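User: I'm preparing a small set of examples for a lab meeting where we compare how different chains pack in three dimensions. I only have the primary sequence for this one, and I'd like the structure in token form so I can line it up with the others. Please keep the answer compact; I'll paste it straight into my notes.
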Amino acid sequence: NKDSLLKIINNYQLNDTLQCQRLSLLIELESDHKIWIKYNDKLTSIASKGINNAQKDGLERKIFLKYLAIAYQNQGAYYNYTDDYPNAIAFYQKSLAITIPNNFHETTSSNYQNIGTAYDFLGNLGMALSNFNKALE
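Assistant: Understood. Below is the structure token output for the 137-residue chain.
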């Protein structure tokens, strides 16, 4: 639950990959986007630093890339919730720039679906449909 995760994050020295995992779970459990976006900022920071410090082709770097892609996707969702669809699309595309070359298929599909939804809200049904089709692929 949220309280347990917060206690672990705040009271224990976790390695950075475990910290990313816990923050990602906490974000999923929190329904208030004004609260979880703060956790997402921390996730973005830890993942970015981890990428820079990890071996270029190592497993640890791939884990940090996964969490940075998730953090960008979360940022896109935040912009969706605040009706800022162009910025939402931009962050989903930043996430795609990580997920596609790293074969993070589930997150790639989710990004395309979210981009399609943002275009739907913007009234651009052609782009919405195109992105929904990419999500299915």
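A couple of notes for your slides: The chain has seven helices and no strands. Helices lie at 2-11, 16-29, 33-53, 59-81, 85-99, 105-122, 125-136.

User: Perfect, thanks.
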